[in-house]
Design a protein that fits this description.
Elements (H helix, E strand, L loop, with lengths): L1 E9 L6 H12 L11 E8 L4 H16 L5 E8 L1
Antiparallel strand pairs: 1-2, 1-3
Length: about 80
């Protein structure tokens, strides 16, 4: 059994309103050193075995078809066997 981890973030060119709101809230709590805060998603799943490159390709396809919005989001896939 392999583990797949996917990190999804908004593309740098997309404004992250949620990140800006959280950053302001942290400033209001006294954490002035925080800047450029961005919010993303983390997905972890177990996969039936197979070659690592095949599993990476499969998870990449999952991201492009359902898990991420490739128009506004970037994603990184990590497979651990």
């Amino acid at each position: 059994m392999a583990k797949a981890r996917v990190v999804i973030t908004l593309k740098e060119t997309i404004m992250d309103a949620q990140g800006q709101t959280v950053e302001k809230a942290l400033h209001n709590l006294g954490y002035q050193g925080v800047s450029d805060l961005r919010i993303g998603k983390f997905i972890e799943m177990s996969l039936d075995g197979g070659p690592k490159d095949q599993l990476e390709s499969q998870v990449d396809e999952m991201c492009r078809r359902l898990l991420a919005n490739p128009i506004i989001e970037d994603f990184q896939v990590e497979i651990e066997q």
